[in-house]
Amino acid sequence: MQLDIADFEVLARDNYTFKHLKVTYSVAELEEIKYEYKKHWQKWKELNLTVATNLPKDFGITKPKIESWTNGWNLRNHFWCAYRSESRQRENACLAVLLNKKQYQIYLMFQHYKSSERSGSVAAYNDLLQEIAIWSQKIDITDYYIWPQVEHELDDHLALKDYLASEKLQTEFQAKLAGKTFQIGKLLMKAKYPQIEDKTVATLKELMPLYQALG
């Protein structure tokens, strides 16, 4: 499967609320917008189901949580999917894949939304910062970035190689966490990516040791 420029660009809008869209566009135009959104989201769904099927069986990940293309009131400004092992469905930590108008990201995260209903503390998750240097020695960290959860997904994030090379940056980074967590993963900027399912599976395999360290 190829990720195309159009898959990014369908998410590039000035406004995502149906209330606003109904005022701005005719019924026919709005139906066309919804049709295009759903078409790209169906591709997104197929991609993530394929990825889950191709992950090693011992990861125990069989049912990715694929977020809908709408929340009822708005079009999403990104497509998102969470990957959790079957035995860890009620934990805050997860692997995830996200597509927005700027980039495609494959990453490890702590899901803060409704986190009180799941297990896993912020402190325990952030302890992973002590493991990253050793973990990174076993992979190619090209295109890997690390960023505070509070940083907007469209901001320019810190390259992992720069983070690892500077104690000053590491100290500043931890101060930016502001009681929240960090995210780490591979960011692929808007472009065409053939066989994106293979790239996604390979990156999730690379991130799996960090995810498993929280289990």
UniProtKB/TrEMBL annotation:
It comes from Candidatus Enterococcus myersii. Pfam families: HI_0552. InterPro entries: HI_0552_fam (IPR019722). This is Glucose-6-phosphate 1-dehydrogenase.
